[in-house]
Amino acid sequence: MTLELHADPIDLTAALVDIPSVSEDESRIADEVEQALREQTTGFEIIRSGNAVLARTNRGLASRVMLAGHLDTVPIADNVPSRREHDSAEGDILHGCGTVDMKSGDAVFLHLAATIDNPAHDLTLVFYDCEEIAAARNGLGRIERELPEWLAADVAILGEPSGGFIEAGCQGTLRVRLTASGTRAHSARSWLGDNAIHKFGAVLNRLAAYRARTVDIDGCVYREGLQAVRISGGVAGNVVPDAAELDVNFRFAPDRNVDDAVEHVREVVEGLDLGFEVTDSSPGALPGLNRPAAAALIEAAGGQFRAKYGWTDVSRFSALGIPAVNYGPGDPNLAHKRDERVPVEQITHVTQVLRSYLTAG
After folding, report:
1. Is 72 one of the catalytic residues?
2. pLDDT band for position 1 (50/70/90)?
3. I want to staple 314 with a disulfide (CB 3.0 to 4.6 A). Which of 73, 88, 215, 324 is the partner?
4. Catalytic residue selected from 72, 101, 106, 160
């Protein structure tokens, strides 16, 4: 099979979906993408990093735009090969694993690399592996460590699904484990014990009453959230528990760093006799929409932009000082679902917007 980069990006999306590429099994799709770029594009330097494919032009233009997308998907759920159908409410729809997250975005980037004849910017394309699993396996992180010069750009566009809207920056995320200890006893003589689970009553009340902060940055409104996401404890149906754990997730606006976020959660639980351990954290990403290259993208999209709720790899670019946005076809609420699907009109729309932005004059 040869991917046809000059084909309609809707058909190219279907071809990519039909190549299974569950995380850690991306070698075949990486081979196909590399071959297609080598055979069907001109002016690109192309290299391979594991199951990631990188390509860039060096035309000496005044600015550089990075187009980045992951090649892997979550496990297939009887939704490969792709299929196309007409829906009375949604119009023409393409179904299949990765149609939303994010092979439609990859298809747009590949098609534009092969078909833009008069570029306004030098381009870097990064198609990487293992985004859908643990962050330590993320191919973009490996590229940052081993090939940092390939991540230099004036603006980065990550092809994550955004419904055809530019979603700028992203929230940071913090997970904290609160622990309570008590004294075990027979529940028939509970006064002899000290119930660890009951000690979470006060913190659960505080979390239930928590009022989320909203922050406007570059016209993007980010709303924070602090939630209990898991609780565990107990020994048996007739035992007062002597230990319990409560996991709390804080999604914070990108004007806070991780240390600020940790301190805020500490303030919320202040005064309670609970253990406190940070188990996971990732910083957010500022939108950076006041940068000239980013502002030009907003103009090309007709001024349609909004804040990104959730964490994406734009955070990595923000940490490097590169303004980054999420922009791709598909409803992010359909990502990873068995009935994952994308309206084909969104693939066409995103292609047209990016072609206008990336083409000179």
Report:
1. yes
2. low
3. 324
4. 72
